Amino acid sequence: MEDDEKYFYHPLENIEDVDVFYDAVERHRLTKAISPDRPYTYWTIELYDQKNGIRGGGGLGVLAADTRRVAEKMGVPFVLITPFYPYEMRQVMENGHLRDERQRVLYQDYGFSLVDSVNIRCSDELCRLDVIEKRFGNTRIVAITEPNFRELYADTSGSDHRLYQEVALGFGGYAALKLLGLKPAIMQLNEVATFFAALARLDELASNGMDFYEAVVYTRKHTLYTNHTLVQAAEAEFTSEQFERFVYPNLKSLAVKKWLSDKFVHGRIKLSSVTIEIAELRSGVSKLHARVANYHDIAGNKVKFRAVTNGIDMDTWVLPEIMKFYETGEILDKMGAPTVNYQDRLVALSEERIREFKNIGRRQLNRILENRPDQNGRILHFEDDDFIFDFKRRFVDYKRPDLPFRDPMRLRNILESRGAHYIISGRVHSGDHVMLGKLERLLELVARDDYLSQHVHYLANYDEELAYALSVGSNVAVNLPIVGLEACGTSWMKDVANLNLLISTHDGGVADGSVNSYLSVTGTSEDEELDMLYQRMEEATACWGNGFDLEYMVQKQLATFLPVISGARMMQEYLDYLFPV
Question: What is the reported pLDDT for 26?
Fold first, then answer.
C-alpha cells in the first residue's frame, strides 16, 4: 500500500480527535521569528490601493492596503498576495440613474514589474498566470494576473469564474512565492476566498514526504483565518463537479484530495467549513464580532475567534495638519499608536484648533469636488461655515443608507434649521438591483422636495479619494448598520481621527467603545432608532454651535477611540497572537 493510500482509512472529521495530532503538535511549534525570506504573508481577494493601480470593492480591500502600509512603517517583513484585475468597474450617474462603466487598467502604469509566470490547471488545461510585484521597503505586493481575469467579483457568487479567480489566487499565489524564494512564516487568510493558498501549502507538504497528519498540523499552526463577515449562511457554495474541474487538477497528494472530498455535504461545500479546519488560529475584526460570529466546524461546534479590531493607517487617512498636532503633542507616537498619556494631552485640542483643522479639510474637499458633480450635475463648493452631514460607505441594505429619509419633512427641518447639506456616497455592487432601486427611489424623493433637492447630494463613483475628502471636510459622519450585522467598519474610524462628530449605532468596531463616547443611535425598534437619529442630528448641529460642547465631544471621541482605530495597535495585536513570547 502506498503511503498516501493508507491515510484513506483515517477520516479526519475532527483532527483534534486523532491521537497522532498531539505528538505532531510538539514537533511543529510555530516559528518564533519572521524574516525577509520567511515573511508574514497576507492573502486577500481584493486590494483597494488606488495609488498603486488596484481598486477593490470596499472595506476589505482598503483594510488590506492599510495593513501593508502599517507593516512597512513598523519594519515587519510582509508580503501581500492578491490578484491584479485587468478591468475595473466605475460608476457613473446619468439623468438620475447609476450605470457601471468597465475600464481597462495596466499594471505597468503603476510601477509593477513582471517577475515570470506560473501555471495552474483548470478543466485539464494549463492556465498561465503572470506574477508581478512592487516593493516598498521591507514589504511588497505580489500579484497574479492574466488578460481574461476580468474584474473583481466578476460573475455571481458560486460561479465557475469566481472559483477560478480564487483558485488562481491560492495555487498561483503560492507558486509565485516559491518562484520568489519565499516561505511563509504565517499565512493570514482574509475571508474564505483565500482558502486555496493554505490548501496549496498542505498539498506541497503532503506530496513532498511529510506524514499527512503532521502536514495538516503544520499547516493549521501556521495559518490564521480572519473572518470579516458575521453570517456563515451568506457564503457561496461550490459543487463537487466544480472542484473536479478547478481544484483537484492542482492537487498532487491523494490524501489531500480525500481529506477535501470528505468535507462535501450532499455534493456541495462551504469554504468556511474547510477554512476553519485548515486554520488553527482564527480572528474576528472587532470585540463584538469575535463574540457573536456564528460559524461552526465540520462537527457542528461553534468556532471561537480571537478579537483583533481593524485599524487604519493614520498617515494615509488623517489630514497632515492634524497628524502633526497628534505627533508634536505626543498624542500619537511615530508608529501612529497612542502614547501612555494621550488622554491627558488631548486637552490641547481647543475649539479654535478644531475649527482651524476643519477649515483646512474643507479646502481639500472643495478641491476634490471640482471633478465630482452631484446627481444633478452640479459642481459643489462649500464655505467654511457651511455644515455637512455625510454618509459614505458601501451601499448595502444592512448599512441602511435610506434610513434618514424615512421622514423627509423632519430631515428637511433639521437641515433647514442650520442651512446644512447631506452628502451621500457609496458603491452599489454590480448586479445588486435591490440597492440600486433603493438609491433611485431615494433620489426621486429628494428631487420632489425643493429644499432637499438643493441640500442633499449623491456623489457617484465612491473611491479612496472621495472617502478621504469627506472625512477631512465634513462636520458629522452618519453610520447606521443594523446592530449585529457590521463586523467592524473603518469609515467611521477616519471620521473620528479627522475630528468629525460620529452618529452611529452601537455595532462593529464602534462597540469597542462605550455607548456614551459618541452620539449613539439606540432603540428597540427601527422607529425608535429613527427618532433617536433625528435627535442626534439636532444635537450635532447644536454642538458645532457651542465651543465648549464641541471640545468636549471631540476630545471624548478621541480619548475612547484612538487606541481602537490605530493600525499600529492592530498589527501589534496580530504579532502578539501569532508569535507569542
Answer: 42
Using only C-alpha atoms, what is the Rg of the chain?
25
Specify whether 423 is located in the same domain as 403: yes
By residue count, the chain amounts to: 581
The region, left, alpha or beta by phi > 0 then psi within -120 to 50, assigned to residue 209 is left
SS3 percent helix, strand, coil of the chain, rounded to 5, is 45, 20, 35
At 74, give phi and psi (nearest 5°). Answer: -90, -5
- Let me know whether 417 and 544 are in one domain: yes
**Residue 473 contacts by C-beta under 8 Å, 6 or more apart in sequence?**
358, 361, 362, 363, 364, 365, 366, 382, 388
If asked whether residues 463 and 447 sit together in one domain, one would say yes
Q: Are residues 330 and 297 in the same domain?
A: no
Q: Which three cell numbers stand for residue 576?
A: 502578539
Q: Rounded to an integer, what distance in angstroms lies between the CA atom of residue 516 and that of residue 575?
A: 31
Whether 338 and 298 share a structural domain: no
Write out the three cell numbers for 282: 482564527
- For residue 397, give its domain range: 314-565
Locus of grid cell 474637499: 365
- Whether 396 and 493 map to the same domain: the answer is yes
Query: Is the pLDDT reported for residue 287 higher than 70?
Result: yes
Residue 7 identity? Y
Q: pLDDT band at 303, cuts 50/70/90?
A: confident
Q: Determine contact, residues 213/24, Cβ cutoff 8 Å.
A: yes
CA distance 157 to 236: 6
Buried b (16+ CB within 10 A) or exposed e, 303-342: bebebbbbbbbbebbbbeebbebbbeeebbeebbbbbeeb
Closest CA to 270 of 314, 316, 237: 237
Whole-angstrom distance, CA of residue 470 vs CA of residue 364: 9
Please choose, from the candidates 481, 561, 553, 56, the residue with its C-alpha nearest in 3D space to the C-alpha of residue 318.
561
Residue 97 lies in a domain: no
Residue 96 belongs to a domain: no
Model's pTM, two decimal places? 0.93
275 with 420, same domain: the answer is: no
Mean pLDDT of 452-465: 95
* 238 sits in which H/E element: strand 237-239
Assess if residue 98 is contained within a domain.
no
Q: What is the 3-state secondary structure (H, E, C) of 536-548?
A: HHHHHHHHHCCHH
Question: Number of structural domains, the chain?
Answer: 2
Same domain, 79 and 196: yes
CATH number of the domain where residue 388 is located = 3.40.50.2000
CA torsion 324→330→332→335, rounded to 10°?
A: 90
Give domain status of residue 93, yes or no.
no
SS3 581: coil
